[in-house]
Design a protein that fits this description.
623 residues, alpha+beta, five-stranded antiparallel sheet, 18 helices, 22 strands, 40% helix
Length: 623
């Protein structure tokens, strides 16, 4: 080119380009036009004088790729951007970006290549550093047991950790780049969208929420933490969410048990006093029957006694809540008990029922009266949920639970009874409250049915759980500890002969003392009565040296504010270690035979009781 003004302008122009400008001919001889020394330390003339020109500077590992792409340019007229490495004069490796275009004549003949080579070493190092940072970030966040994400100000997910893949059952590549509405779903986004927009504006938020996952709800603690650059611009916000479902369930269980314990104390006291009153009424009825010559009067008295028996059942239900109120469990078959109880509870409704259970269903350890009450409460709920129509499905199966399968139960063998109703289901926010005492959604309900059922199951060493999907009904699962598949032998009824001997009775209720004296006298015994432990002890000591001392003791366990049956017995045992002593109490759990014997008594009986029940007990141990 001539040293003309346009040429000078061209040279000045290419020298100001921040890269090396070159032109290569069809035979690959190259002319370096500018800035070679700035790029790689070699002058333009030095590169042009090399055997293969610019190719002699290309890193050996990248040479084949450069030659391959150059051949492609010789075949087709096109532009190309290629990234590769070169070796500088001082031996340093430099990353370059080669932007080149093939040149063809008008008749389509390849004439060469023109291009510009830029130094991108700093950019490549930054990219590698960024990739390393992202890799380290993933390594850290993927091992944190929490849901971690970054969302930009447009509410688009830009980063999620491994936990998100598990939660949504899809790779993170299908989450990143998606708007929050797409990721969360329309329903949940309607609840969360306002908070996310607030966080995207720079507001830090902490809250608890329920998050739907299939048919269940996760309980999460969530933090939205805005990311604000030094200049004050909000770039987005981080999400840190932790699953607290198990912790919340454990807390709810603790609160529920604490409520039941408090209610149990109250219920136990009420039931004790009520049983004492029933005992007196029972006694008066028994005495009246013995004194009446009228058949019709005796029949009415028998009916009145039956009513009190039902009242005794009610106090037994209250006793379920009382401290230490364990059921009288026996190893018994679940079938036909389950079928009979369910069918009886469904009497009068329009519902059908199907049963499913294996032939080898295990026996279970249970108190038939209490479990009957549990089933009855569940059937009442099912009937109400289904509006007395549809089909009830009852299943029973053998279940071997491992450790932590259910929070409330130990590892072991259980019989699981499941009752499925066709109702509308239970709202998610109510499921954790349905077993709470006094909680009810019914205007006429008392809120004790399911609370009682839950308490009974826990005292059996089992539990009761619920599954529910709105619109698809509910399933209540009862877990009973498995028993030995050996039916218990039925005891032959004892023959009742007239009693004999002298009995000391101690009870703080005047009516109970009077009726017991009448009944036992009628049964053939001589009876002395006392109102408290001190009076009973004085009577016993006074009669001990006589020719006809007491042959047995019947003592009330609890006498408020005074000496009770246990304290009396301890003193009497110092004098007479063998005399039969029977304990009676309104707290039925305190006077079971095995427990009475541990306390030093011969046996025990729960108030209220009939004369036949009492004389049967005496006859067994005194004859």
């Amino acid at each position: 080119m001539n040293d003309s003004a346009p040429e000078k302008q061209f040279q000045a122009f290419i020298k100001n380009i921040p890269g090396m400008v070159y032109r290569a001919n069809a035979d690959w001889t190259a002319e370096i036009l500018s800035n070679a020394e700035t790029l790689c330390g070699y002058s333009n003339d030095e590169i042009n004088s090399m055997k293969h020109g610019w190719l002699d500077l290309v890193h050996p590992d990248d040479l084949a790729l450069v030659e391959k792409d150059g051949a492609a340019l010789a075949r087709d007229h096109r532009s190309f951007v290629q990234t590769y490495r070169i070796i500088s004069r001082d031996g340093q490796t430099i990353w370059v970006e080669d932007r080149k275009t093939s040149i063809f004549s008008d008749d389509g003949k390849f004439e060469g290549i023109e291009g510009v080579v830029f130094d991108i070493t700093d950019r490549k190092r930054a990219e590698e550093s960024l990739q390393m940072s992202e890799s380290q970030l993933l390594m850290v966040t993927d091992n944190i047991p929490a849901y971690i994400a970054f969302v930009d100000t447009g509410l688009v997910y830009r980063f999620v950790n491994k936990a998100y893949e598990v939660l949504y059952k899809k790779p993170r590549s299908e989450i990143v780049g998606q708007h929050a509405r797409v990721v969360l779903g329309d329903e949940y986004f309607e609840r969360a969208g306002a908070r996310m927009k607030a966080a995207a504006s720079g507001e830090r938020l902490s809250f608890e929420t329920s998050f739907p996952v299939g048919d269940r709800q996760l309980l999460l603690t969530v933090e939205y933490m805005p990311f604000i650059e030094d200049g004050g611009e909000v770039k987005g916000f981080f999400i840190l969410a932790s699953d607290i479902t198990a912790r919340k369930q454990a807390e709810d269980l603790f609160i529920r048990n604490d409520r039941l314990e408090s209610l149990g104390i109250l219920a136990g006291g009420i039931a004790h006093d009520f049983n004492n009153l029933l005992g007196s009424i029972f006694g008066y009825l028994e005495v009246a029957k013995t004194m009446s010559d009228s058949e019709s009067v005796r029949e009415m008295l028998v009916n009145a006694g039956s009513t009190i028996t039902r009242a005794r059942t009610l106090t037994g239900q209250l006793m379920t809540f009382a401290r230490g109120g364990s059921p009288d469990k026996k190893s018994s078959p679940v079938i036909p008990f389950l079928e009979e109880t369910v069918r009886f509870s469904l009497s009068g409704s329009g519902m059908r029922c199907t049963f499913h259970y294996p032939k080898d269903l295990w026996y279970a350890q249970y108190d038939a009266g209490q479990i009957c009450q549990v089933i009855d409460n569940l059937i009442i709920n099912a009937r109400q949920a289904a509006n007395e129509t549809g089909e009830l499905e009852v299943n029973a199966e053998n279940v071997a639970l491992k450790k932590n399968d259910l929070t409330e139960l130990d590892e072991g063998s259980y019989v699981r009874i499941s009752i499925r109703d066709p109702g509308a289901g239970i709202e998610p926010e109510l499921r954790n409250r349905i077993f709470d005492p006094f909680f009810t959604t019914k205007s006429t309900g008392r809120g004790l049915g399911l609370a009682t059922a839950y308490s009974i199951m826990r005292k059996h060493g089992g539990t009761i759980t619920v599954e529910s999907v709105q619109g698809k009904g509910s399933i209540f699962h009862m877990y009973l500890p498995a028993g030995k598949n050996e039916p218990e032998r039925k005891k032959e009824p004892l023959k009742m002969d007239p009693g004999s001997g002298k009995i000391l009775v101690m009870d703080d209720e005047t009516g109970m003392r009077t009726t017991l004296k009448e009944l036992l006298t009628y049964a053939g015994y001589t009876v002395e009565i006392s109102a408290d432990g001190k009076e009973a002890l004085d009577l016993f000591l006074r009669e001990a040296d006589k020719s006809e001392p007491f042959t047995a003791l019947i003592l009330d366990l609890t006498v408020p504010g005074r000496m009770g049956g246990l304290e009396v017995l301890k003193e009497i045992r110092k004098i007479n270690a063998t005399i039969p002593a029977f304990v009676m109490s309104g707290y039925s759990e305190e006077i079971k035979l095995r427990e009475a014997q541990k306390l030093g008594f011969t046996a025990g009986i729960a108030k209220p009781f009939t004369i036949q029940e009492l004389t049967t007990l005496l006859h067994k141990h005194l004859v």
